[in-house]
Amino acid sequence: MMTRRLRNLFGVFILCCCFQSVYAQTNVYDSIFVGGRWRTFNTHLPTGYNGNQLYPMVLGLHPLGNSSWTEFAAQTKLTPKSDSASFIMVYPEGVKSGMGRSWNAGTCCGGAQTQNIDDVGFINTLLDTLINRYKVDSTRIYATGFSNGALMTFRLADQLAQRFAAVAIVGGALIYSPWNPAKTVPIMSIHSYADQVIAYNGNTSPMLGTFPSQENVYNTVNAKYNCLNSKDTVFYNSSSYTHIIYTDCPCNASIERYVTQDGSHSWPGGAANGPFPISNKINATYIIWNFFKKYTNDCAVTKTEDAQKTNESVFSYFPNPVRDALTVLAKQQGKLLIYNQLGTKITEVPLLESETIVPCDHLASGVYTLQFLNKVGMPISVKKLIVLK
After folding, report:
1. pTM for the full model?
2. Backbone angles phi, psi at 177, to 5 degrees
3. How far apart are CA 370 and CA 345, in angstroms?
């Protein structure tokens, strides 16, 4: 009798351990079906993750090649950073064919580009999936990438601008056109003067195509952003690195550029990347997170005559939180768009140059995004609305 009881207790102990192991799992390799194929990704939940708070989320896009998410994670050391800084780290994977896993960044690279894979659609669906599955703060979603992953990150900053609070480009360039983001996404760029793959001054590769110079890239970006304080060199050392910033951009966005004298086509401060030397002058992962954490996705502006105005100076609204109806006071004609946390448009209302009553009784309790457009349809600003029932 005693032996049977001990066996039963041991079985319960094993079962409890199994449940505890599943609950405590911090790395989940999974797939979703999108674009007619299964797409893979790994999600790392930070140490201490729980369902009582919202977490920032960072997407890390790997370079071209046979490497999977594990090699990119090891190279960048983004996973331990997510534990110490408490953000969700997600590693999507490109399709595998020909030259290995790749991203369709526009005119590069590999099978993803030649097959015209809809990687933008994949990332958009992946974001919806993750927001539904985990406690994600949808106002603090960021993306970074290296090489082909950096090229893809630039494309996301254009075509999915409304979903990201900031992005970081390491060893990449802007090759997708036209560059016409719906809002000014803060951008950090990290490059090496000695990069031979995507050269600082531009180059053409027989296998990868043509890359513009870094100066041309950020002239293009700033021409759209129209930052009032452009290309201010805040640090320069001929034996280490240059730090350049563009500030006073619409909606408090900025562009920051680090260019190292050492290193090559690699992740500064990271692990080995084949034959390419690594810069030891800066730590890319450290400065990227310090850049990201300054920004939330609570404002979206393109450069119009009203770009420097705040939401309160052009459109005001009350009450917030709201239950049944929202009152909007407009100083000019325009339009109000209401989005849920998945980025789906729920309501679109024309605004007169006066008072407009916007019904909210069809909205469930939660946090929504209000986007105000001016009379020609250009975004002025974005604010948050809390709905209580």
Report:
1. 0.74
2. -140, 155
3. 10
